[in-house]
Each structure stands twice: as structure tokens, then as C-alpha cells.
Amino acid sequence: MNTPIDISEESGVRYLHFGSDWVQGAMRLRKPNALELTYTREMMAGLLFREAPWPARVLLIGLGAGSLAKFVYHHLPEARVTVVEIAPEVHAVAHQYFRLPDEGERLEVHIGDGAEFVRDDPRQWDLIAVDGFDRHARAGALATQPFYAACRARLATDGILSVNLFGQLRGFKTQLQRLRKAFDGQVLDLPECDSGNVVALASPAAGQSFDLATLKSRAANLKAVTGLDLRPTLRRLEKSGACPDGSVSL
């Protein structure tokens, strides 16, 4: 069954919808390789907790408008990106309307089921970013305990799993519980965005503590080098009371 796709534009931003009002991706026409939506920026928050040239190997589950793929491709030149997208028509739209680069040595698009890919493909990844939903905002197999366990098995020692969750929808707390179980509690859930999204980061390694001053310095450098601004994320994290001792653990 084909995915119903709609495209809209407003105030210089092009949006992708899957037959509903839910925004599945966005691109500012004047900055096509920037991350327009707050939650997509926070999907890359792992960059605050690892030093360059991390990540070298990136797996993206769910293509959407190609925002994450384009960001990594254009701003992290050491990284190779594999995208798994279940709907071939989404891949076509990302090319035609959202300036997804052609496939090559650094970008591979696999049409298939993301959960099956993680289960069956033996490669190891530095960053796995999961942002896959149907038109009803359901993640299906991408929100299950076996899937999160499979993601952990596919991460390198210093790897990070980044997951887009919907904080306002039923099942959110259950997904966090599954993540924590799969990663022995090494999970950082960022404060909910205005859009209702919550991004959770999980690491298979023993938890490291990062002081806020270091993270703020890294955020400023990241903004200067790539244009990605995660300083508001750190301010929200600090304001939420999640780091009372001035540090964050992941």
C-alpha cells in the first residue's frame, strides 16, 4: 500500500506530510541542509557527548524529508550514512522536493523494513537514529523491546542510539521503559519540545558524566562549524532540573 504524501509550503519552509496534518519533515528553502525542526536538531545531540571525527558510521531508520541524511552528508564529511526507508515513494519525494543527494560512497538508501534491517544486517554503527512513523504517528516494530535490544547489539562501544518519541501520545513512558531495559538505564530523555516530541539518547557503554560547561563549549563549537545550535537544548535541560549537580550522564 502506497504512503499518501502531501507537500505544503509556508513562510519559506517546505513541509512533508503523510496524508495528515502531522509534519513528517521540513526544509527551509534558503537553508536546505540545515535542520529546521527542533526535534531533528536534538536527534543529533549525540555530537555533544562524543568528539570528532565521531560518528564515522551512521544508520538512519526513516528517511522522511531527508533532513538528517542531508545534515550528516554535508556537515560531517568523515561520516558514511545508510538510510533505511520502508516506502520507495518517500525516497522519490525526498529527491524531487527536498534535495536529497544522489547515492554514492558516503550515502546509501536501503528500501525495506527498519526493524528487520537492524535485526539482520551485521554491521556496527556509531550512531543509530530512529525516526520512523506511519500516517497515524505509530512507530510499530520500531518501538518494541526486541528492536531496542537489536539496536544495542549493533552499536559500537562508543555508539549512541537516538530515538524520536511523541511525548504527548499514549505509550511514550512504555517506550522509555523499554529503552532503559535494553540499555541498562543508560538513557537520557531530553525535555519535551513544543511539538510534543521527546528525543531519547541511549548508550551501551558505562555511563559517563559530562559537566554542563563542557557541553556548552562543545555546543558553541558545533554551532560555529556546522550551524547546528544545541545551546537551547542544553538550556532546557538545565531548566528542567535534570542536572542538579551541573552535569549530565550518558
Topology:
Blueprint (H helix, E strand, L loop, with lengths): L5 E5 L2 E5 L5 E6 L9 H6 L13 E5 L5 H9 L4 E6 L2 H11 L8 E5 L2 H7 L4 E6 L14 H10 E12 L5 H11 L4 E3 L7 E6 L6 E3 H15 L4 H9 L7 E3 L1
Parallel strand pairs: 4-5, 4-7, 5-6, 7-8
Antiparallel strand pairs: 1-2, 2-3, 8-10, 9-10, 11-12
How do you describe this structure in short?
This protein is an alpha/beta fold.
Walk me through what this model shows.
- This protein is of the alpha/beta class and 250 residues long.
- Helices cover 31% and strands 26% of the residues.
- The strands form three sheets. The chain has a seven-stranded mixed beta sheet with strand order 6-5-4-7-8-10-9, with helices on both faces. A three-stranded antiparallel beta sheet has the order 1-2-3, with no helix packed on it. A two-stranded antiparallel sheet has the order 11-12.
- The protein is globular, with a radius of gyration of 17 Å.
- The mean pLDDT is 92.
Characteristic terms for this protein:
250 residues; alpha/beta; seven-stranded mixed beta sheet; three-stranded antiparallel beta sheet; 8 helices; 31% helix
Radius of gyration of CA atoms, rounded to a whole number:
17 Å
Number of helices, counting only DSSP H or I runs of 4 residues or more: 8
Low-confidence stretches: none
Shape, principal axes of CA atoms: globular
Question: Helicity range of the residues?
Answer: 25-40%
Mean pLDDT value? 92
Strand content: 25-35%
How is the largest sheet built, in terms of strand order? 6-5-4-7-8-10-9
